[in-house]
Amino acid sequence: MSRSLNKAARKPPPARPQIGVPLDPHAAPLDESSPLLTDLYELAMLDVYHQQGMHDTAVFEMFMRRLPAQRGFLVAAGLEQALDYIEHLRFGGRELDWLAETGRFSDDFLNYLAHFRFSGEVHALPEGTVFFANEPMLRVTAPLPEAQIVESRLMNILHLQTVIASKAARFRLAARNTALVDFGLRRAHGAEAGLYAARAGYLADFEGTATVLAGMRYGIPIFGTMAHSFVQAHAGETEAFERFGHARPDDVTLLIDTFDTESGARHAIDAARRLAHDGISVKAVRIDSGDLDRDARRVRALLDAAGLDEVEVFLSGSLDEIRIKALIANGVPVGGFGVGTNLDVSADAPFLDCVYKLQEYAGQPKRKRSAGKSTWPGRKQVFRRYRADGRMESDTIGLESDRPAGRPLIEKVMEDGRRIQPSPALSVARARAAESLACLPHALRELDPGAAFEVEISESIRALAAQVDAASRREADR
């Protein structure tokens, strides 16, 4: 390091604007719909756009640059929450007062924010659609400040649910027709993440969730058993099981591995016989630890020998899709799986290379050319071709105006700042996801490592990129 740089580095930092003061801790908290749930640079750019009168139409697209090594496909999710955010984006008095206190923004800009509304269009892949790298899952067309300010929160919403839905889809393919339930709230990265994980899992064909609020908010079926602490709080397993059955006669699933799984199974059989005298049926027993393959077989044999063939074996405990695939392939006698951490944090691929990039401004196509992060310019559409057997064959990313062979996937969902149609039921996205997964090529359905799907870039996009590059070079030579 040079002496001058060392000297500069020792200078005291410049004075910073006042940060502001915390909101009154006794006031109602601002929720996730607040426009301040964004990055500071979004507001800084808006300020400059406002000062310079840069309100021409901008086109931004959100896409994934590349897929993680552990993913052969993605499932689009989160669109409904993203549209809710855009439609209701407002700067309220509390937000404006706090921004004023920071000393960072002028009264003129704050007055602009006070009247801010999104007035543009949104095009998107419908929720539940399978998609691949570089394919836009969302396009925002609006005056530049409006299209810019929504960037961070849109990415935050769509990225999380797409990560979880894509993981959940892998669980569904691995489990085939066996029931799957989300158990992951306690390991999710916060309350909203847990709710979104429950929603994304159900969208990707999980049977339901243990998260009660997800049942209330999204209409997702809710399931639950008991904790080991419930068993430990009683004098013995049989007593715990009987008390639970009498208190919850319509929903009896017994956790049998608190001490010893086979002993727990025998105690569950004793409790089931006693409960049957009162007309109460045990639906399932749950195993949450140990050698699940071996223990499930032993417990199944004990239940069958006791004449309880209608009682299912439910398995949980740090399961991922690869383990579930192996259990199913080995013919383990299982009626369902509870999936927690590995779903709700997508442990093997917890993030996607998700970006939101400017593709057009004031009628001119735009292209980023950074090394390793270049983009294709223009408003795009994805065209999907299918084989005669109904399986996906290949995709082409083309310009919106192109008309190649294949079915266009991206649809207009918002105009003039409002949804074009009422929000569809979550069941619609769930059915679409099931249909999309059924159409995957065999290698992707089998979760084969390294399996890839053909995605082409159209000649029209390549030609437009060449024009943009040539114009950039001419501008640089001036």
Structural summary, described in words:
It is a single chain. The protein is of the alpha/beta class. It folds into two domains: 40-164 and 350-477, nicotinate phosphoribosyltransferase, CATH 3.20.140; 173-344, Aldolase class I (TIM Barrel, Alpha-Beta Barrel), CATH 3.20.20.70. It is built from 18 helices and 19 strands. The strands form four sheets. The chain has a seven-stranded antiparallel sheet. Strands 7-6-11-10-9-8 form a six-stranded parallel sheet. The chain has a four-stranded mixed sheet with strand order 16-14-15-19. The longest helix has 25 residues, at 151-175.
> How many beta-strand segments?
19
Q: How many separate domains make up the residues? A: 2
At the first level of CATH, what is the class of the largest domain?
A: Alpha Beta
Going by CATH, what is the homologous superfamily of the largest domain? nicotinate phosphoribosyltransferase
Separation of termini?
35 Å
Sheet with the most strands: spatial strand order: 13-12-1-5-3-17-18
CATH architecture of the largest domain: Alpha-Beta Barrel
**How many alpha or pi helices?**
18
Largest sheet: 7 strands, antiparallel
Please tell me how large the radius of gyration is: 27 Å
